[in-house]
Amino acid sequence: MTSQLDNAARSLAQSHFRTLRIGTPFQPRIDALAKTQDWYNWAGYRAPHSLWDEELEYFAIRSQAALFDISPMTKYRIEGPDAEAFLDRVTLRDVTKLRPGRVHYTAWCDDEGFVLDDGTLFRLSPTRFRLCSQERHLPWLLDSALGFEVIVEEETEAVAGLALQGPTAFAVLRDAGFAGAEKLKIFDLAEFPHDGDTVTISRTGFTGDLGYELFVPVDKALSLWDRLMAAGELRGIRAIGYTALNRARLEAGLIVANADFTTAEHAIRADRRRMPDEVGLGFMIDLEKGHFNGRRAILEARAKRKLRHVLVGLEIEGNIPAEHAIVYHKKSKDVGLVSAAMWSPTAKRNIAIASLARPYGDTVVEDLWVEIYAMRELQYQKLMKRAKVVARPFIKLDRRTANPPSDF
User: Does this model's pTM top 0.90?
Assistant: First the structure.
């Protein structure tokens, strides 16, 4: 009897090894294309690093049209008479300036002014919003909503999403029959008929290229995928994984929470938390609006020069990516760390995003070096390469904002 109980307990303890990651509404189509079988965990979902070839998937973004499943992205429906006032209270940007049918990139902080996350805010109507983020924040949002006449609900599992990115993205939408998509300017959104329901299409994305994001109820997901893939066949449409998207976002100079900076809720060590000004998000702060989370702490840090870090773009000599390399001043003093790096095929430069201790990267920008370890014939070779602070984005494509969008 004891042996049976022990076996049952052991089986229960080990059952998590057999627990599969959640599939997205597009999983049947993605699984059919997954030749590399290279998966990772995205917020509990089974998502692909790559599907067929990570190098060619990157070039699909820059020369054709790439389709990326963004369904695991955390999504909240925020609705009610006080929805605008509530979001204006908790986020950095002035939500009263966000018109219905528009999207803006924003961030939100705790009371001490440290960044909790960044994301996109979609204004679907005067009283209805969708907030998309990297991490989950439902308890914090519900606590913050006390006193406001507003409904906050997570809709991640109810809404499927696709990112359609690349120079032929608009042509794919047009050929798919989404009449009026040409009217969407950068950060515009609109609803279009689809399969007896509607699809919300925004001219947004995470690649710095011409692109759109599409959101539909989960039961309309596969029909949307098929509609886009059929329309894009002659436009070179390809499904892609995260590795290719991550390369494109780095070229665009965009940051990822808990990759390029540690969010306040995830930070174990207090000195790992960052204020908006320390991660390149200070431009969002609107001091003309009323009180918002972290306002006093942010103003105090600015006034008393308490800001300790700066996030910068780097251009590095050579062509070996400096992924997670230590940054030095005068080859001796450790002043920061590279969080993302690549040789950019589009910019034709060795680029990186790094977090540096001030004043390095801020007022002291000369004589910076990165320490790279390159594997050469089963031995690591230490390379010290010069780095210089450069502006982000590393590439700027006119087609991203062209109005009307270009037809390739």
Answer: yes
